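Running low. Any example?
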Amino acid sequence: MGREAAGVRGVKLSDEQRVNALIVAAEGFILTASQNGFGKLTPLDEFPKHGRGGQGVIALQITDRNGHMVGAQLVSMKMRSC
């Protein structure tokens, strides 16, 4: 069986990890929300770029206080003058 028939590994995950995939722009922020109502706004440049077969990035710590991550969204914050 050749490489094209078997496929290639995209991401290595443990049984407890989940994937939330986003189409990412050149700039902006990732807004993550937790089960217990906490949110985190992280600049895109804080997320490193990985090649194929990486283990991803932890965007939000899962704790009893936070709960599980329920969503992530790419956001743009543009300053407006009044």
